[in-house]
Predict the structure.
Amino acid sequence: TIYITDNPDHYSSFHTVYGTETSKEFCPTLQINQTNTEPVPKGVLIRDYVTCCDCEKWRCIFSDKALSQKEMQDFKQALDAYDYSCDAPLFSDDYYLIEPKIWKF
């Protein structure tokens, strides 16, 4: 929003502001969206997907490190053995594969 300097209640005409760079200061929707967003992990960190047994939405399972073949096999067995809900941890605290987490969308 660019105001005419002598009247802050009146906007400038299109021809006056056309081609002018706009900063985030003048984009309230960008400001609101940036404060309400969560950081999203990169796609390369996604290891698998799981469906929530309560809301039936897909959830991404991500890990900062690549899983070994043994870890991946154990991981798949754990996924097949249990139903997961959005607010539940992926594994119990004493399970050795505690690092992968469910990411909500």
Summary: The chain has a mean pLDDT of 72. Residues 3-36 form one domain. The radius of gyration is 23 Å. The chain has two domains: 3-36, 43-103.
